[in-house]
Write a structure and sequence with these properties.
Blueprint (H helix, E strand, L loop, with lengths): L1 H20 L5 H7 L2 H7 L29 E3 L4 E3 L7 E4 L5 E4 L9 H7 L4 H4 L9
Bound molecules: iron/sulfur cluster (SF4).
The site of iron/sulfur cluster has 12 residues, from loops.
């Protein structure tokens, strides 16, 4: 799963760059800044979908602070959802690796969830995602 690991590292750098600009904002204001419409306007390079622009999940108030999800877990054999979200799924690849499918789950994109898990240090909020990856 080097693809995910590489993406994770690159994304954490992009996230930190934005957070370094927002030091004067309160936590609630930071979360508002990460709303999809604002991000499309002010952070066009944060997500490739902003160019169209297109939402990754079709929900009205999509928030991008937790791209990706703190509940996602990666091990050498599989990825899975730590809370067993009813909207999550799994796909078995040809090589046997089982991929967590989050395409129908909007848990991390809702502000009520983001407020619960909020940490200005994105990597710290995501610290359990790859704890068993190696
Ligand atoms: S997006 Fe949903 S299914 Fe995927 S890891 Fe997070 S909570 Fe679980």
């Amino acid at each position: 799963m080097t693809g995910y690991k590489d993406w994770f590292e690159a994304h954490s750098i992009k996230h930190k760059k934005i957070m370094d600009k927002l030091t004067n904002l309160s936590d609630d204001e930071v979360i508002e800044y990460f709303r999809f419409d604002n991000m499309v306007q002010n952070e066009p390079d944060f997500c490739p979908l902003y160019k169209e622009p297109k939402k990754c999940h079709d929900i009205k108030e999509l928030n991008c602070y937790f791209c990706a999800c703190p509940n996602f877990r990666l091990t050498p054999q599989k990825s899975f959802c730590d809370i067993e979200s009813i909207n999550g799924g799994s796909i078995k690849a040809k090589d046997g690796f089982i991929h967590q499918d989050c395409s129908k789950c909007s848990v991390p994109h809702k502000e009520v969830y983001i407020k619960k898990k909020f940490d200005r240090d994105w990597k710290n909020a995501m610290k359990f995602v790859m704890k068993d990856a190696n």
